[in-house]
Amino acid sequence: MMTMTRTSSEIAQEESMCELYNNSVHFLSTNTSPYGDEHLPYSSYEYSSSLSSFTCSSSSSSTASVTSESSSRSFFTASEEYNNHTAVLSSSLVNHIKKGLKKHRTTTSSSTMTTSSSSSSSSSSSSRSSKHVYHDFESERNSSNHNNTNDSLFDLNKRDSYGFKLPTQWVNAETLYRFDRDYRNVLEHQEHKWNQMLAECGGELPPLGSKLKRYARKGIPTDLRGKAWLKYSGAKAKMNKQPNEYKTLLEKAMEMGKSNPHAEVIYRDLHRTFPDNSRFSCSVRQPDGSIAMIPESNPLLCSLERVLLAFSIHSPQIGYCQSLNFLAGFFLLFVDTEEEAFWLLESTVNDFYPEKMFDNSMDGSTIDQTVLMQLVYEKMPGVWNKISNKRCFWECVQDLPPVTLVTNHWFLTLFINILPVETVARVWDCIFIEGYKVLFRVALSIFKLSEHSICGLEDHIDALQLLQNVPKRLVDCHEFIQVKKKKKKHKY
Predict the structure, then answer these.
(1) Which CATH architecture describes the domain 240-352?
(2) Annotated region Disordered: where (predicted)?
(3) CATH architecture, domain defined by 23-104+356-481
(4) Ramachandran bin of 284, using left for φ above 0, alpha for ψ from -120 to 50, beta for the remaining angles
(5) Chain centroid, CA 201 distance in Å
């Protein structure tokens, strides 16, 4: 067997990687909830700067051959086995990485891996009381000409209750109709269960506990979602503790004006925030007949600008970067005031995300992607073989597979513009109750759903486009996130 000769600098670099993993236990909390799961806010994180900065780009989407009718395993049932070993970066994983690096120094650079055979697996304040995600498809269906095809039953410009266009380019209208019809029953049932739980708690949202976690996994009612996110993210407590902070930040922003280094970039990104959403539209027809984008014409975009300016002053170590506009904009759809949206953004970025996620180094982002690739390598070797072009994981630690260009975007945006909007909202219901590890569960579930298709690709680069398209078809959020009975008891 041919051994590899390692230089002292390479060994030092690998030791630095081990130290980086040791310092990056940003998924472990010093506080635990009554049911034993880690819950945020987490303790402060310290990151080594030994990883090079990681940039993210997204290739354009096009139609893939994966159908939306694939069986969706719950990301909890599909990934519950990762709960303590894989969904969080545990000390055992650190030791495993150290052993792997040590072993890799004295073994060949090639690695034979077996192929896995297993394959399975949001609302404005004015409309949050809606009992269905999409418009009343049933009445439209009954009044439609039944001689039309399924796709012609609904105008492609129809929108959901959040203002987004229906994803008819990914899922046909008949499938959307069936989901909307069935999901109404789910929403009504959940509203009844939550009302019972609120009554038991004197009309207040309950404290963290196993019952709350179970209810959140099945969906928080739309009229309670904003309040629940505020409470369980810690944003409400911060807002109550600093009642004048947002006003003060806005005053500073007004005083700074264009001297704020982020003001111009924030303004340029306003019209790019959910451009297809009717509530964020700012297109204005000019006298000459042309269309101009004027953010000032839309009060919601004005609120978004103020939230982002306030955040840039409040968190100067981050300031502003792309993806924050989508986070803040999404929050504005669920809360009553822009102050609440600001504190949700502040709590999410500073308490839920790892450090250095949005700075120039993006070390936090690189660590997340390294951990995700480690999990895919361990749990789905067939997928790993394809996306890595049959390289060993230890060869890829400093040169991650190209699919991380896609998966990195998943984490930066918390799946906004990745998953259908209601599925995103359901994922966020779980994030604010259970913590950041939920992102890894969702990502792993998407890989699991795509496992058969990825393994069948001829070129590993094609996996990028496939992983861009598959999430857009996961319209049935309840099937994706439902909690099924476990055949064996898992430790929490």
Answers:
(1) Orthogonal Bundle (1.10)
(2) 100-151
(3) Orthogonal Bundle (1.10)
(4) beta
(5) 30
